[in-house]
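idk why but the lab printer keeps eating my pages so im just putting this in chat instead. protein + (2S)-2-hydroxybutanedioic acid:
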Amino acid sequence: MTKVTVLGAAGGIGQPLSLLLKLSPYVDELSLYDIRLAHGVATDLSHINSSVKVSGFEPKDKNDQQAIKQALAGTDVVIIPAGVPRKPGMTRDDLFNINAGIIKSLASAIAETAPNAFVLVISNPVNSTVPIVAETFKSYGVFNPKRLFGVTTLDIVRANTFLKEYDSSLQGVESVKVDVIGGHSGETIVPVFSTSNARDIFAKLSTDQKKQLVHRVQFGGDEVVKAKNGAGSATLSMAYSGYTFAEALLRAVKGERGVVEDSFVYLDASIPGASEVRSKTGVDYLSLPVELGPQGAVSVQGGILTQLDTEEQRLFAIAVNTLKKNIVKGVAFVNKVK
Ligand code: NAD
Ligand code: LMR
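predcted complex ->
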């Protein structure tokens, strides 16, 4: 029996993500929690005749902690898209003031009710919200670095999609696989086209085309924010990406071997390969290829850092600089308000 809980399930990402989970062959029970509309979304989804059992939970008032506890009881995987999205002119970091508090309180509820669950963080700014979850778990003595993942899959999806636009022979979802390392905001996003299976196509692009492509991956989120014109940020492509990562994890948990996904993880010594990456880069968290298994992160594949071309090395150095500040901000938030 696999139970997945979505926190923020009635939002722009939460609803289509919950739909994909309702259709998933890897999920048995789906628990939807939101401060609004969770019952409605759950009732709507429950009319789909897949075998996944759906329930919705909403707090009665601000002080009600029972609803989230019920939503989380016995869950194997928690996915968090709760929080506010950007409007035009905002950076992801501008969301920190509102989302940091939301994430800390949700992480506390997980630590109390489902401390062994895998936790997938979508809410922005991911570079800071993942450290907030980790620090909150540490304060409860339940942090397992192998089970906490910042979802950066949308950056990979964008890199794959945008590269394909340069060559019409590349068809199908699986035809291109580009790793994207670093973090999840602007210049912390570093697509590594040079090691992808379509590196020959990338190599043929002009210097300007390469620059435009990298910039588009780094600032793809802004493209959607601008097009939605004040009505939010990426939701459908994010739901697809969030489901893609969750499904990969569930496949690995159920015993599939060789499942590797890029994700923003804490570089803890208990994860093979992590200490080397940490001493090489000087960061505590990084998105990079992570092998997944029944217990979560099996290893981090830091070898990619030795394969970057000169331009990717330059971009990675810039990314690390900003990432460090974003991480410190998340860590300080929890330790300050404790
Ligand atoms: P949204 O406003 O449409 O939905 C957010 C939902 O969270 C709402 O339904 C709201 O009621 C709920 N919520 C707020 N506080 C809550 C709480 N304390 N407990 C439970 N639910 C709560 O926003 P969205 O478009 O779905 O985006 C959600 C977040 O995901 C934003 O922070 C956005 O920046 C982020 N995001 C991340 C990525 C990524 O690649 N990681 C991509 C897109 C969006
Ligand atoms: C994205 O990359 O689309 C998300 O992080 C949402 C945003 O604010 O851009």
